[in-house]
Amino acid sequence: MSDETPRAGRRPQPDGPPDAAREAFELSGRLVLAGRYEEALAATGEAARLLRDGTASTPRPAATRPTDPGTAAVLAHVLVLRCEALAKLNRWDECLRTASEAVDRGRGQAVTAPFTAPLGATLLGLGTALWGLGRPQEALAATQESVDLHRQLAHADPAYRPQLANALNHLGVVLSRLGRHAEALDVTKESVALYRRLSSADPAAHAHGLAQAVNNLARRQAARNQRRRALRSAEEAVALYRRLALANPAVHRRDLAMALGNAARTHVGRAEALAAAAEAVAVLDELDRTEPGVHGALFADCLSLHAAALADLGRFREAAGVTTRAVAMMREQAALNPAARRGDLGVALAFHARVRAEAGIERAEALAAATEAVALLRGLAAEIPALYGPGLAEVLALEDRLRSAAP
């Protein structure tokens, strides 16, 4: 199940260019939030052009760096939004170039507000791009630097606490993906605590940030075997997202599906887990009909959870049909971004093999899937043993069992 990568969230609004440039910036943010990423690329391109020119009415050469503090800050945020859209579209090389430019522009200014705030946001974008390109240690360094900058800002001015909460949530995701689960849990708990204080003062403004953080807290608690706490957090995240999806289904139904998937993973009751996973798949089926391919990675994850819930109830043949679809989707995602998705594909293949072994069907296909999973997970376990080592050991044992049972 994918972690919920936190969105950029609300930012303190710097002084800056009026009219066309700011309108394009605000449109970019709305389009990214709505998941309309191709349109967001066009809007961010126009906003960046106007900002580099200074204003629409007083054009300057495109290469000129904006000198007005507000203009520079807004341009940095535009580049962050562009990076987010590129990441969602799996255009990782462009995402890295965009994030690198944004960070370079931030570092070219004095590290004082409003520049520290956009520099911190651009570092989060850089961390996302580096992770997507399979460079996890560099991603961690960029994300940690963002947290440090936002901590300084929030200490001086409480208005930056939402940015700190968001950066901590990002850091928890990166640490968890590196197998550093205890540290990930600590920073995610800090993020949730900050969001709770913010939400008590302004619930509407911070409902989405709180839901994201609580959803990720459930993952962190499950990774530390805190099953009861993980279930409470997962159920809280589902409740938060149900309210958000009721108010704005176009934006938050995908988020609800992700939270339902986490709930399915943490439920002790098998029937409850199956119900949550089935609802997540139903939501994503409907979204996929209107936005084909946009939700592929999450859809594949939720299909795998649905299959796992069926297998836990002994319904292995039904689970085998679901894993066939999940693996096909995950292959598509791995083809788009091998560095980021090979682990997910390896895990999906391992489960694909397991349900066939348990059902006693398609043994040759099960063995082929297990062998492919071993090849993928072996390399990952060498890079991040804490995260992939246990899974590799399990699929190696499964491969041996299938080989010994082969004619």
Instruction: Give the low-confidence spans.
Output: 8-15, 55-66
Find the CATH superfamily of the domain at 292-407.
Tetratricopeptide repeat domain
How many β-strand runs? 0
- Overall CATH class of the domain at 292-407: Mainly Alpha
By secondary-structure content and strand pairing, the structural class works out as mainly alpha
Strand content: under 5%
CATH architecture of the domain at 292-407: Alpha Horseshoe
Number of helices: 17
- The Cα radius of gyration reads 22 Å
Distance between the termini: 35 Å
Taking all residues together, what is the mean pLDDT? 86
Biggest β-sheet description: none
CATH topology term of the domain at 292-407: Serine Threonine Protein Phosphatase 5, Tetratricopeptide repeat
Tertiary shape: globular
H/E order of the elements?
HHHHHHHHHHHHHHHHH
Helix content: over 70%
Region (Disordered): 1-21
Organism: Kitasatospora misakiensis
Protein name: Tetratricopeptide repeat protein
Pfam family, one: TPR_12
